[in-house]
Amino acid sequence: MNTLNLEKLLNPSSIALIGASDKSGKVGTTIMKYLLKSTARVYPVNPKIDYIMHIPVYKDVSDISGDVDLAIVALSAANSVSAVSACSDKGIPFVIVVAGGFGETGAEGGALEGKLREIVSRGKTRILGPNSLGVFVPENDLDTVFVEHGDKALAQGGSVAFISQSGSVGVESLGLASNTGFGMRAFVGTGNKTDLTELDFIRHFGRDDKTDCLAIYVESVEGERDFLLECSEVSAKKPVLVLKAGRTPAGASAAGSHTGRLAGSDRVVNGAFKQYGIQRAFDDEELCDAALSLSMLKPASGNRVAVVTPAGGFGVMCTDYIDSQDSRAKLIMAELSGETKSRIAGNTLNFASTNNPVDLTASADNGMFTNSLDALIDDDGVDIIICVTFFAPPTIDDGLIKEIGRRVRNSSKPILVFTEYGPFTDEYLLSFYNEGVAGFPSISRVVRAARFLVERGEIIKRKGGMKKDTPVEHRELAGMVETWKSSLKVPGKPDEWETSGLFRIAGLPAQKSVLVEHEDYFLSLVENASLPGPYAVKICGSEILHKTELGGVALNVGEGELSETVGMMLRKFPGNSVIISNMITYSGTEFILGALNDFTFGPSVMAGAGGILTELYKDVAFRLAPCEHEVARGMLEELRIAPILEGYRGSSLDKEALVEILVRFSRLAAIIAGQGGQLDINPIVWSDDGWIILDAKAVL
Amino acid sequence: MNTLNLEKLLNPSSIALIGASDKSGKVGTTIMKYLLKSTARVYPVNPKIDYIMHIPVYKDVSDISGDVDLAIVALSAANSVSAVSACSDKGIPFVIVVAGGFGETGAEGGALEGKLREIVSRGKTRILGPNSLGVFVPENDLDTVFVEHGDKALAQGGSVAFISQSGSVGVESLGLASNTGFGMRAFVGTGNKTDLTELDFIRHFGRDDKTDCLAIYVESVEGERDFLLECSEVSAKKPVLVLKAGRTPAGASAAGSHTGRLAGSDRVVNGAFKQYGIQRAFDDEELCDAALSLSMLKPASGNRVAVVTPAGGFGVMCTDYIDSQDSRAKLIMAELSGETKSRIAGNTLNFASTNNPVDLTASADNGMFTNSLDALIDDDGVDIIICVTFFAPPTIDDGLIKEIGRRVRNSSKPILVFTEYGPFTDEYLLSFYNEGVAGFPSISRVVRAARFLVERGEIIKRKGGMKKDTPVEHRELAGMVETWKSSLKVPGKPDEWETSGLFRIAGLPAQKSVLVEHEDYFLSLVENASLPGPYAVKICGSEILHKTELGGVALNVGEGELSETVGMMLRKFPGNSVIISNMITYSGTEFILGALNDFTFGPSVMAGAGGILTELYKDVAFRLAPCEHEVARGMLEELRIAPILEGYRGSSLDKEALVEILVRFSRLAAIIAGQGGQLDINPIVWSDDGWIILDAKAVL
Asked: Can you tell me the ipTM of this complex?
């Protein structure tokens, strides 16, 4: 897909501000003030004013004689439509519509928004918004963001492209960035996304050499799989962070009431993000912290963390958080080498601890700190370093900031800083930022930032094997599924026998069994199938619910009792058939496989711990279907039950065979769920020498 | 136990500062400056100076003619000892020793610290420290904390008593409190705790009417069970928060290297804290956030949360965090009543959402916000309210702060505030604080604070039934265990048969079985025991490891095969016996019970999901032993597998019977683990009509 050229939106030579004003408190006044700092030519437009700060004001956008690259419409919703139309007539390529009061407010506003889309369809003008917070590009001195957002760190520019659907989240993220730093390459408020969406900006900044990291806040995702594929492509080169509000079912319903559409199920979102190399944040603080570290630091090449601290307590807390379970990335405390320990011992007080966390004690000075840090940098057993810094001890002074900064720049390992200093914490964080150091004011936050760097390192490693996962066309399989569907006794309602037929088509290990429709000749069927006893005998009919309770299931039936059991069952449920299969003995663990059509992302596949505990432990992983072997393997490895597949406590389950099954299942899932159907295999178990599906359900 | 009278330490009429100075950068100078703000009479002591700011300086503490309530020794470690000795000679009741360089630095420092203890033993002087950050009591204008800690919110005083073992954690907590507020009733730095410990201060502030909340940072706990019992008693009246560094095994080893002693296993700490009504924090930010909310707000009477927001995105994030799984306390989004919804609808814009989260949209004004808040306060279905506040929208102004403050003071429900405002966030948080409102700058933090309030509400409810859990003396049981121990074939090494005998003594459901020592007459034993087949036959001997691998276990042995199997086994393992029990059929879930002697807290008991998955899911709960029914029930209810005991998916396991077993097991645990032993029952299962222990191991 072509990338839209956004040059005239993000680096305009000329800007018209429709609704320019000089009255205090007006949005048009604030934007005007900001625009005057830009190097672009600015045309204020307002029929009621002649001059703003000695600049002549145009009555109408059509009165402007020169070309205009960008128009900003700072009028009410109702008045915005005709203004945008005039911009289109003049051939202005980009218009930012600031006003809210469109689709997000109901039918009336929705109709107004429809008119905006109609103007876009004329082909001359692209719209950012409505309900957009605007754009901010420090390098180009362009700032149309009309809310106070501070400028301590922001004005310097930086390498994070921040794309926010929500105005308030955008503003507060700008605030966080300003307070203690992270540099913005650009900020874009997408608002209602009636035309331009996050996808346009992901494409743009993904290819922009001055952007090191994308941070995206979305409530609804436009373009679903396109969004994922684009993020995946970008994430091969640079980190892509997404804060997707609506991560749990209740959250999703809240997102629905906010954006007018339902968000997808959260677990599918998690799985899809993992699959496509997207790193997920859960609130704006986490998003900004992650952007800070990922834009300033190299990814971690491993997960072994070393901590150096002049305050033992914080070292211990740090260790605690590092050891905590976390789904993002596992961290471990690095084992320091003997050489490292002697280097540290040689340069510190004799009561310092040279084990990790390296506790220099409150008597440490700058030199002891940096010498220890150097030893950790040189230790091959350390992948990532957290420096706990304090400036209260008289022996440590601000010079340490520069010293750490120099090491951050020169080291191939990421080095993170935690600092707290009473009322001066923010000031110190900003000083660190100005030396190129990512600093954090709490232990939980600095360790979380480390996890993002480890997660990023893992994404980069995976990328080698990760294909652009365009749905593989399994035409042959799809054709067979169609034939199968048309053969069903009750259209759309496969019974258990038919479902196992579907699995055989897909190459899945359905249980060996025979279908008995008449009592008369069934024993020869069993004989022909070489099916040894004991047997499981089940009634088969798509309309019979609660088979077990109704006496439609007999287990452990001996060869001698088979005749009688089958006959009794056929007589009890006239018009139905009976499935005979041999009893499977298995010890150990049940797995579940599932497929559904996710509201947001479409066909998805699930794998996890099966049986009665599935819903209690929720030990499952999702990915979009179909998925290839590496993705399927990743799903299984993500489970807490994963060690069972790796010989845990003597288990002998064949992991690669289950990976193959999952891949095949995902191809079937892509077809069945793609048509709105659902599949549930629960359980699939390991029996002696192979995986076997014991129970399953298909809904088309 | 008597509470030590700390009046002269915390509210002294006269203070001697030994090591007083006027040289900039000296600790003795900083403390002198602070002391001069106090109303106490101050005696500077320093043989080398005559005057400090026109105040005459004493050569020696013995030169002071009047009584001295408190001495602060701001000298080096080496010089501190003789100074403290002089204080003791003069009869000064309390001395704060500021210097580090004692026990925490090794043997030499340890010897110095021993001398301090020797002075204490003379009975005239109590010591706070050494390595103490000092004390700070705003109401008494007493501040001996010699490090910059800000005073924006601190100087006003408040109701949190903060007790910190570590200087740096203490300082940074003071900083956090100062920046955005929480009021300190007092701060105490306990340092090395060579004499006074946290226990003395917990007792004091637990009984102090002006203290609403205790926040405690400890690395090692002194007095173990006394600490828990005291906290439990205090927590019946006011919240007790503890940050205990060393929460995971690796963390504990780090704590060991820092404090010279190993911390207890983290899961035991968690369980013990729950059992004794202590709320746990994991870093200083969390501790301060919890102290802020618990000291300013009523506990929540339930867990139903309502959110009101002018920014939909933050409402959704809030919902997400509320729905997230968290071990502290489960929160749910409140269902608003019809009346509430109409009240909100009647006072807001027509496109606002009246569902929870109540999204007022960015066009909301102060009135809409407060009217909606009032409706939520009046809704009986709401237990706790989170206000998302923003001051960027032109329709909302600072007046909202006072309006919310008034409602916080008048409402019986806790109301929390989230606010972000770019560079002004801290300022706004402080404004909220000054109106009596607990505010937080991130969604995750405000929701976490809500969990602390819900957890506190649950502790208060539980208190009714919670006895002061002094170890019940089960003398009779202890006597029987002694007899049992002395009867063991191999002293200290019970075999399986002997272990099941121990369980029978304790009233636990050991499996029905017979012990066969000779082949000759065993069938009559089986007959006499009315033991029906099929059987499990196991070799029994405390020295045989890996029974199964050696062929020492036969399962599903039919009645006809019993003779042969038993004979074969006795011949294969000469000198050992055989246990015959009937095969237990059970479907469903295995539980594990365990007992160990925790390094910190002593005899502890564990319950959880058993079987092969125990270590993968780590779905276990700990408490100290013995525990009574309510505590045991709480342990089981804490498990993720708990619904299995409540009829989940048709299960019919008897929960109360398992509670009874756990209580009995805990009494046995108190005895066995109290003597350093360990017990492991894995699994115990539900079989038809009772719980039964299938396998167990005892180590004495």
From this structure: 0.87
